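Dig into my protein:

:::
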Amino acid sequence: MDISYNWLRELVDFSLTPRELAARLTMVGLAVDGVEEAGDDFVLEIDLTSNRPDCLSHLGVAREVAAIVGGVVKPPDAHAAGAEGSANDLTSVVIEDPELCPRYAARVVRGVEIGPSPEWLA
């Protein structure tokens, strides 16, 4: 899994270089197989084992980095903008067994353009 060094720096305040961070992550059990320069960033290639699903995202790896350096994770602002109308106007859900599914939530997403990914994302 590829992790951006710069994104980790946005989530946790630390002063380790990319290679120092890779060594520290490897010492605590997250095997970093390589560090590649990518423009003004570095990409850490992490080989995750099946017992570490908590590190399947930048935020998960940031929690590990915070534990290593004694820092605090600054989660990104994940507030979704309000939408006009109601999902109930477009669809409905019937919960047939409330014991197996006590709650169901949905959100309507509009304005999505289907096309090739931008170069920075690809």
The first helix runs from residue 5 to 11. Residues 35 and 44 are 5 Å apart (CA to CA). The beta strands are 2-4, 31-38, 41-47. The chain has a mean pLDDT of 91.
